[in-house]
Amino acid sequence: MRTTVGIIGAGPAGLLLARLLHNAGIDSVVLESRDRAYVEHRQRAGILEQGTIDVLRAAGAGERMDREGLEHDGIELRFDRRRHRVDFPALTGGRSVMVYAQTEVCKDLIALQLKEGGPLLFEAEALAVEGAETDRPSIRFRHEGCEDVLECDYVVGCDGFWGVARKAIPASLSQVFERTYPFGWLGILADVPPSHDELIYARHDRGFALLSMRSPSVSRLYLQVSADTDAGTWSDEQIWDELERRLETDDDWTLRRGPITQKSVTPMRSYVHEPMRHGRLFLAGDAAHIVPPTGAKGLNLAVGDVVTFARALVHQKETGSAELLDAYSANCLRRVWQAERFSYDMTTMLHRDPDATPFDLRLQLARLDRISSCRAAETDLALGYTGFPLD
């Protein structure tokens, strides 16, 4: 097999890249190790930044998102039983975010790829990226019980943290920056309408809590727990009781309870691999960087990566210049590190570290007080949350 761009991974990054390349008249092949049902049902992020929304619309993948997604113009911060709303459009010149699950983004992009795009092979396991330093890199993969080779002009690894793409970069050229947090999120899906029409981020002495949603009838909520927590040790009643404590306010707001349909624990870590390019191999999304979910940045960072690559390849096609391809890693990493900073700031401001001193806890409250009383600080949060520029 031969193509211009070999894409490893059919998550939102790989699928969107295939769509962007198709719209630009550039052929690609997508290899995905899992089957279609798994890709379309794995639960992941649910917040789309303004830039991601705009890219999906421009790519022709926004119709169902605009019909079924929940546009949000702000979030609420809770601390000391107080409530403070951050108004995104008022602080950012009209930017907002959309609640639309990654599973739904994948469904939309898969349907478009199978209808209009190039080959999308499910249950095609990438085994290795070879010849990244040459002008004819290739992907060795297994599909339907047989090994095959996909010859490419470029390879883009959208295959996540455990994928093979990053392993093709020599260790002598790699730098890794990471931080592991001593807590995680116990997340639930519940068949109950959300108790608030926007996301609530709560800092509490007992630990962080987040109220989110998947639809007008399905709530998504999270509790900070220790990193080694087994979700099965928490009963439904314990979860609802703890959420109620951490989300409490001095007014008459109440938490709606309902049947819990799913429980899981998400670890918290920050990770960046530099560089994001080696020869004709380019890394995108979790293959190159991971952020704690507090800032809702993971999916949106992956979108920024593939938009940057697609624009660079189109630029080369139109001008003959590889300038933007050569700058891919540096351009992506500027945005990545800003997202890492934002996610770290949100995480450390809202979560209780088990080793925190009274001084640390008062600093958290001081940071939240600053946001709620200073428009400049509030604006910085709003700009970060709604997304850093894709240019």
Mean of residue pLDDT? 96
- In whole angstroms, the N-to-C terminal distance is 33 Å
- Characterize the largest beta sheet: strand count, sense, and whether it forms a barrel: 8 strands, mixed
Strand count: 20
Strand order of the largest sheet: 6-5-14-15-16-13-17-20
Rg over C-alpha atoms, rounded to the nearest angstrom: 21 Å
- Going by helix content, strand content and strand pairing, the class is alpha+beta
Outline the low-pLDDT stretches: none
Backbone shape: globular
Helix count? Answer: 12
What topology does this entry show?
Layout: E1 5-8, H1 12-23, E2 28-31, H2 36-39, E3 47-48, H3 50-58, H4 63-68, E4 70-72, E5 74-79, E6 82-87, H5 88-92, E7 97-99, H6 102-116, E8 120-121, E9 124-130, E10 138-143, E11 146-151, E12 154-157, E13 175-190, E14 199-202, E15 209-215, E16 218-226, H7 236-246, E17 260-274, E18 277-278, E19 281-283, E20 289-290, H8 298-319, H9 323-326, H10 328-350, H11 358-373, H12 375-386
Parallel strand pairs: 1-2, 1-12, 2-8, 5-14, 12-19
Antiparallel strand pairs: 3-7, 4-7, 5-6, 9-10, 10-11, 13-16, 13-17, 14-15, 15-16, 17-20, 18-19
Helix pairs in contact: 1-6, 1-8, 8-10, 11-12
